[in-house]
Write a structure and sequence with these properties.
By secondary structure, the chain is mainly beta. The protein has one domain. Helix content is about 10%, strand content about 40%. It has 2 helices and 17 strands. The chain has helices spanning about 270-280, 305-325, and strands spanning about 20-30, 55-60, 65, 80-85, 95-100, 105-110, 115-120, 130-135, 140-145, 150, 155-165, 170-180, 190-200, 230-240, 260-265, 285-290, 295-300. Strands 3, 4, 6, 7, 9, 10, 12, 15, 16 and 17 form a 10-stranded mixed beta sheet that branches. The protein has a 7-stranded mixed beta sheet with strand order 2-1-5-8-11-13-14, with no helix packed on it.
Length: about 325
């Protein structure tokens, strides 16, 4: 059994964040519920379309977090959503919480219009926090493809992404982060960036006389194997980057590269050699590994745009293998 990941919460002596914003969204699916001609493209004759649609059933927010109206560049079964944060960045004391729920058979691609920014912190070292939780019901598909995060020098940033999947749900996503602002000759010399990525899979329901209502793992520990929380970790990654630390430049660390990226997909590929070739470039360090239940690709380099380009190649290969359809770049990326 995997060891419990370390707490992502900062030491108790660190000041807590004081300003909160949240967004909750429910993406659902319904069959035979659309009129032909109401979507951007009408000429779909693929066998995997069943006159149904994925749609944003309801959402609520507190503070400046919003969702743009849904787009359907691939037809009605894939709901493209853009997450908006009008302030444009996270400052000292901010705490953003995002919660997405996908119903059975729903398929959504969620992205952002521009880079996320964790600005320079304040003298009180208040945290800058973003938490993402997504739960996927049976046969749901989530493509989590946000633009990169820029961690300014002096930020005290904390990012936690959790994905909880039913046995037949599919998840593909990436996480791209830039430490400092290389284009402005700003290195990450102060502050810290703490990051955790968690993928959990619910096990098939076991026979029991006692109902189980506790499906979500605790913030720091996987479910106790002695209770009936039928959930197991697929992939857990913990990262901590201290500004100015020698590991940012060491050969066993980031080797002086400011951009760090991870691509992940709950997929067992048969094209690993093709994927490795797709993300190989002489100006960066990259890798692709097929774990028992998750495909993981890594990037170390100088360019967030390059990381996204290489990961998009992998996404295209995985998508065609999984869903028999090519990658469809959100049009917001072109603006």
């Amino acid at each position: 059994m995997l060891a419990a990941p370390p707490p992502i919460d900062p030491p108790s002596q660190q000041p807590e964040s004081s300003w909160r914003a949240s967004l909750t969204a429910h993406i659902a699916y319904e069959r035979g519920a659309y009129e032909r001609g109401t979507y951007e493209r009408k000429d779909y004759e693929r066998g995997d379309y069943d006159n149904g649609r994925s749609f944003l059933k309801q959402w609520s927010h507190e503070g400046p977090l919003k969702l743009q109206r849904a787009f359907y560049p691939e037809g009605p079964t894939v709901c493209h959503l853009t997450l908006l944060h009008p302030p444009g960045g996270i400052v000292a004391g901010d705490n953003l919480s995002l919660n997405f729920q996908l119903s059975e058979n729903a398929h959504s691609l969620i992205t952002t219009p521009s880079a996320g920014k964790f600005y320079h912190g304040d003298k009180n070292q208040r945290l800058q926090i973003q938490n993402v939780l997504a739960t996927l019901a049976a046969n749901a598909i989530l493509e989590w493809l946000p633009q990169e995060n820029i961690i300014f020098d002096g930020a005290n940033a904390q990012l936690d992404n959790q994905f909880i999947l039913e046995p037949d749900a599919l998840l593909t996503g990436w996480d791209i982060n830039c430490l400092g602002r290389p284009a402005a000759n700003e290195r990450f010399e102060n502050g810290f960036f703490k990051q955790r990525l968690q993928l959990w899979r619910k096990k098939a329901a076991a026979k029991s006389d006692k109902p189980n209502n506790n499906h979500r793992p605790s913030s720091n520990n996987p479910p106790n194997s002695n209770n009936e929380a039928a959930i197991e970790p697929l992939y857990i990654e913990n990262s901590f980057y201290q500004g100015g630390h020698k590991h940012l430049n060491s050969k066993s660390g980031l080797q002086g590269y400011p951009v760090v990226g991870t691509f992940f997909s709950t997929h067992k590929t048969e094209h690993l050699k093709q994927i490795r070739a797709a993300i190989t470039h002489k100006t960066c360090v990259s890798s692709a590994s097929q774990l028992p239940d998750v495909l993981v690709c890594r990037y170390l380099g100088h360019s967030t745009e390059q990381a996204k380009t290489l990961f998009t190649r992998v996404w295209d290969i995985v998508r065609q293998e999984q869903l028999n359809r090519p990658a469809c770049r959100p049009r917001i990326w072109n603006t």
